[in-house]
Amino acid sequence: MNLLAFAARRLAGAAVLLVLLSAAVFAATAVLPGDAVSAVAGVDASEAQRAEVRAGLGLDRPAAERYADWAAGAVRGDLGNGFVGERPVTDVLATRLPNSLLLAGLTLAVTAPLAALLGLWTGLRGGGADRVVSTSAQILAAVPEFVVAALLVAVLAVWLEVLPRVSVIPLGGTPLDAPHALVLPVLTLSAVGLAVATRLLRASVADAAATPYCEAARLNGVRGVRLAVRHILPNAAGPAVQALTLTTGALVGSAVVVENVFDYPGIGRELQLAVAARDVPMVQGIATALVAVMLVVLLLGDICARLLGAREGDDR
Amino acid sequence: MSRQIDRRAFLRRGAAGAAALAVGPGLLAACSTDGTDSARKPGSGSSHRSGGTLRAAFVGGGASETLDFFNGPSALDLVRARAWHGTLGNLDPSGPDGVRYGVLKGIDISDDLSAYTLHVRPGVRFTDGSELTSADILHSLSGLAAKSKLPVYRLAAANFDLARARAEGDLKVVLPTLRPIADGRLILCQGNFLVVKDGTRDFREGMPSCGPFRLTEFAAGQGSAFERYDDHYGHVPHLDGLELRSIADSTARAGALTGGEIDFAHDLSPVTARTLADDAKAELAPTKSPYLVGLSFQLNMSAKPFDDPRVREAFKLAVDREAMVKTVFYGNAEIGNDLPSIGFPDYADGIPQRAHDPERARELLQEAGADGMKVRLTTGPETPGMVETATLFVEDLKKIGVRASVRELPAGQLYADFPAYSALPLAGSYQMPIPALSTYQMNTAGGSPSAFGWKKSGTDALVARARAESDQARAKKLGTRAQRTRWEEGNQVLPVFKPNLNARAKGVDGIPDDLFEQFPGFSRASLA
Fold first, then answer.
1. Chain B residues with CB-CB distance to A274 below 8 A
2. Please, which contacts does B371-374 make with residues 24 or more away whose CB atoms are closer than 8 Å?
């Protein structure tokens, strides 16, 4: 099957999945205890005021009806307005989602080549270097993000004073207007991602290096970089690519800790705020957009893996 | 600690609203009438550079931040509006009526307490050159505030018939009361009644207004920028410009302050504030009374054994208030006396401070047959220090033989699920700074759900009489009697009042001069 057909099939599947997941997100907001009334009307509103606000927000209608309304709007590109502050959800996505994509993209750009390098080196070399790198990677993968962030801040911002402590971005600008503010968030996220990807790659490199065809290549005089890049990497990268795409996709919406610590204007914190305020349209819009991003990233990952030589028959 | 909730500021603001005082700055209007202006010039003796742009950081509300402060629940929404719009007035204990007027010259009260006449200060101009008249005030009050869902504005709606307000000529607005009240100035001049131009429906950059600054840029969840309005009535700001940023995390706000990226950080957590103590570039500037937030525990009288006054008293005697102030707030807080609204004129300061007496508490529990009782205290991280204080309270309760435990809900949930909240046997909550009697009427009287089973028509009537009493000494006496009942039999344990732990760069001055410190104003601020 050619690549185009494969992508088309997967896209169609993703669309169906998106609809199902958006319904699941909606159901989840419906079972969360509480609603947005307290966020809008205040804690001490009387019963009558609560009922009025609830009706004003449309929360007195059945959940299925509200979902149908939302879905009808969403198909036309209208994700509604948030309950709190009444800002259009698409506005919020338009300003915050690109920042999160940028953060995830930069993290991937740092992580992928470094992980390939370290994975190949340790997987092929073994010995003392392998043990040192593997153990460090294991430790790094186990350290919570906020600890990594705090350490980086302590060293780079407080002690050496080479980087700003928080990402103060010029008003109306994007993170690209203050590139130095991106360094700490990207480093923090990369540290954990790098550790995991290195471990994965090391294992599959070691496997690939032990295969008969590698042995044959070696016997034919292929060595060093050429052996690693031409013969081992393509065969070893499959699982690591999948793992990287998964972490990168997840980064888009779940870098909340890093967004908070460095005050980075990403979408994760908006989602967290919306959940706390029980702002259903905002939660629904952001979560659905994140699901869509994740599905696209997974598709790209599959295409990459396929290009890297997944078997023909494997066309799930 | 990031506490969006802080965001939850909405509560704060709400409440505050209620309580609060207002926007002070602009308001300084009063100067012309009460002559306090010269007295308020910042920092006599020190020299202040005129100009510069002050950068301040707040928790913010993310994408839900809005320019429409009548519908924006985050604290920053109100701070931004205070910089941008004129105000009716702010609470000012040193002012003649207990307030400092803004776009008003004064407020007269009819003898029968049935109507308030607001006198517009002549010569106040909007940024488009037009003069502020009664129509603008009327629109802001009965067009916008009356329709607001925020608790702040509900306090006014509970006391005044906003819909029936009317203009008399260009310089007078008459506002009927719903029942006779003598303390209405404290409600109208709490700082959150801001005035926009007649006909305003949408709030956007570039719309004319009459506050100390004009808005030049706004990005929700990120920040806003202002420049000085040179034709501002009464008092033109020292600053050339102002930048208000949203930085949700307390540590990040402190980091931006010590890193020189901002000049003022709002509402830090007690621990973060402590880390600034030795910093050469920054200093703490906690808000002063009455701008203190009460941390409280509500005992649900509809649930056994809290229907027994002896059990309620035991819980009040069990708290080691000193320890809370020292351990949670490192001394940066005041001890509470189980009554809200410390520092307001109607607060009953004549009632003796409740002692810490675990022995007596244990005896009371035994008398009530409640020794060894089991109870779970539910709370959430809605404002810094809340969960820590609850944890200490539970330890105090264990010492008098109560099998107590604490349950911390995720941020936002405590109040989001309101029916569950008001049914809790024991809930940890917080109280915004609002005058004592009006807040009682709004939140506690008539068996309101947030009263947790307190229903005493006698006390309700006493509060109503106190508020309808023009003679201040008699009003105070009646108000104190009502609060004494709450102190003796009430179901609220309020051990600590905490300030907003703000911090500023060394040399920044004049922010408290703008009053309504909870939502700081910058019209009198200056940089070093």
1. 62, 64
2. B371/B401, B372/B401, B372/B402, B372/B403, B373/B305, B373/B311, B373/B402, B373/B403, B374/B402, B374/B403, B374/B404
